[in-house]
Design brief:
The complex is a heterodimer of chains A (about 300) and B (about 180).
Chain A: H1 17-25, H2 30-50, H3 62-86, H4 119-128, H5 161-180, H6 184-197, H7 204-217, H8 221-231, H9 241-254, H10 258-270, H11 275-291
Chain B: H1 3-6, H2 17-36, H3 41-55, H4 67-84, H5 86-101, H6 109-126, H7 130-141, H8 146-153, H9 157-178
The chains are: A mainly alpha (about 300), B mainly alpha (about 180).
Amino acid sequence: MKAPRNPRRLIHDPELGCLVRAAAESRLEPERLERSRQEILGRIAEAEASGRTVRPILRTGPRRVLQAAVPLLLLVCATAGALIWLARPPTRMRPETAAPAAPARGRGHPPAAGRDVSIDELLEIGSGYEPPPTGAPRPEPPAAPGPVAGLAPPPAPQPAPSARLQEQIALFRKARRAAHAGDLDQATGLLDELARRFPKSPLGAEARVLRVEVLYRQGRYPQAIERIEPLLELPELAGKKAQLLRLLGDAWLQLGRCERATDAFRRALGLGLQGAEARAARRGLEQCARRQPDR
Amino acid sequence: MALHAVLDMPLSDGLDIAALFAEHGEFIANVIRRLAGPGSHVDDLVQETFVVAHRKRHRFDPERAAPRTWLYGIAANLCRRHHRSAHRLARLRARLVTEQTDEPAPAPDQEVLRRQQAAVVHEALARLPFKQREVFSLYELHNLDGASIAAMLDIPEGTVWTRLHHARKRFERLVRARLGGGPA
């Protein structure tokens, strides 16, 4: 319900009216008012004589000052934050633990986080990447001692990430060269060393592919097949899935399992296998067809 | 925008505090007496109100508020600050006692009765929340209308009536309890 306009005052109330009237009629004594007046004028005159209250500094009032000061303060804070952000030290990722990474910004630059990188890119990076010169101010940890025959290598201080990546790349390239040269045992040993020393290496998936190739070339088809199948599920090897399927088909073909080989070859060709790999897969399919004329 | 703001020249430079006091001094003194309760601190607050008005005279904008409203705002702020301070309240009580002992010679019976009645009202007023006390005092004791109070307190008129309604209910309960007519 809407309140009435200027409701009846309590002073007209028969019960409380006399009390309210007494209070309303009570006034400050004129003598006290006069004393206050003189006191006020005296204080003002004294203040003006001493020049203390000539003019307030903030003529526009505190609200206006706040309105101007708050955005200014925010601007200062934002600027300071930006400067701190720009001056922060660069974040260094350990290559073993980081996702395989990074746009190659040119030869000699290690990969940055955030992008899958192929083994060829990594190798290209590694071939051009040089660690800081020995005379650089950054202290390098002492080199790890070589393994002693019959003894497990003692735990050594971890080298700098860039040096470790270069070492992994060197090991992998040696293993690949050995495999291409036909020295499959040495290639296997180097791949074992890579897996043992750098279990979380970004080259791990590529090393497993190379190991499968070595196993195949060694004629160890069941082991090759056993290792290929989990590799097919690795997202980082999605680009190599067709080649892996072709290799799987070859392995099954060597074992005489044409139905499986045919399936693998067809899947490989369905994934867009090109060039010599595609021709090899078709040859495998033809061989399977010859062995299974009724199918 | 006001002309003085454009010219950056306050019109209130010539504000005559003596004239202001002559015009509004009694009103402000009685308002303070009702908001802060009777006592010698009333004189302090009255003086402080006008000294503050003199100090801040450059902020006075006659286009925004009447001098009485502006002075009331200063006085109410001072009373609120006075009311909030427990230390000041303790001093207030001491001063009240002193003032009572310093009262002039006994007046005729009618005057004594009137003072007692006023004391009952002031006692009840002191127990109202400040915002309710403001509205109650201005409406019931200073005889201002709702629109004037709304302008003076810079609140909607409906808020004036709401506060007055609650203030009255509480005031009546307090007065009846004081006079022995019911619980507080």
